[in-house]
Amino acid sequence: MAYPLTRGEHSRFTSVNFNVWLVILAAATWGIIRHLQGNLPLQLSGVLILIGLGILSAGVRTALGYRNPNVIYSFTVPIVLYDLLIISVAIKLTGGYDSDLWLLFYPLLLSEAAVIPRRWVAPIAILACIGYVWAAYPVPVEERVNLGFRLSMLMIMTMFMYMVYRSHRERHQALAQLKEALQRGQERERIAKEFHDGLGHTLVSAIMGLELVKQRCETDTVKAKTVLQEQINSLREAMEEARQTIHHLQGDSSSDLCQRARRLMAQVQAQMGVETKIVCPDQLPGLLPAENLALARVVQESLSNILKHARNAKTVELEIETQDGRLTGAIRDDGAGFDPEQTLYGFGVCNLHERIAAMKGELTIRSAPGQGTEVQFWIPYPVHSKGGES
After folding, report:
1. What is the pTM of this model?
2. Domain 256-390 belongs in CATH node 3.20.20.370
3. Full 3-state SS string of the chain
4. Which of 18, 41, 270, 353 lies at a C-alpha separation of 20 to 30 Å from 97?
């Protein structure tokens, strides 16, 4: 049965196999032309037999390669030994030392040095030299120095090609290890963002609620019990949030942005006693699940910052709209505000910018002492429209 090839495997094998056939074609053309010129001590039938043996070798490679390129590696040594024998015989029959076919050793040895097992590199090169000495014998005395040079170059170039390939492979392995380490670091950062923006928000809310329970335990027991129950529910939601985050890290999420936003705003209202206003479309069909969740995290982190830093706020507003090829959002409060130029933003705010930037959008934070805070963002909508491909 034929093995399916990936596009990359097919492309690599085709390029190498094409060059093999070019070598066969060049050698065949040389043999026929030299025979027509009367410069070969070989009948046309002999030339055609040698060409046929070369085509047989290339044909076997082609047949094996198109079934599965990896199968070739199992037959590399037998095929190389066959090719060495054919080249040596061809040199012997076409002029011995004077035959130019000795050059065929180079493409064979240089190409196979990169794929044959390490233990076979030196033996194959030595066998090539032995085959050439046999094919070239007898060698004129005045040409023996040149023969030695040819043999030494065959050995040196074979070993050199193997060392180049080995160096390239080791470099590739090192790059692969660095890439893997980078991916692990990115995954750790991603997990940190998910837990900071999701679970962190819920825990901050629970802590604020428990502090409120502590304050009211002695003065308003009924209210304290109500708030305590709310925090128990909130911590249960935190457990569910952790499960959802793990589920998302496994590659799936079906979170709806506006449903999450309304639930988060209800928590803010319950915790702070503020007036809330939310505007959000019922459906946002242009968003993928991961993008839905990323925007929900932006809303969640913004509201978490309000819980932590705008306790004196009276109103919190959330608006999400789509128009003119954009999805825009704004989270506002009328709390104490701050001076952006004198504030060192933390991990959470950096997450906000990174999440929006990943969707080819932009996020800005506007605030001033005594004038509240507004987080504004926009992304292309749909996210995968022209100019907003992510």
Report:
1. 0.46
2. no
3. CCCCCCHHHHHHHHHHHHHHHHHHHHHHHHHHHHHHCCCCCCCHHHHHHHHHHHHHHHHHHHHHHHHCHHHHHHHHHHHHHHHHHHHHHHHHHCCHHHCHHHHHHHHHHHHHCCCCCHHHHHHHHHHHHHHHHHHHCCCCHHHHHHHHHHHHHHHHHHHHHHHHHHHHHHHHHHHHHHHHHHHHHHHHHHHHHHHHHHHHHHHHHHHHHHHHHHHHCCCCHHHHHHHHHHHHHHHHHHHHHHHHHHHHHCCCCCCCHHHHHHHHHHHHHHHHCCEEEEECCCCCCCCCHHHHHHHHHHHHHHHHHHHHHCCCCCEEEEEEEEECCEEEEEEEECCCCCCHHHCCCCHHHHHHHHHHHHCCCEEEEEECCCCCEEEEEEEECCCCCCCCCC
4. 18
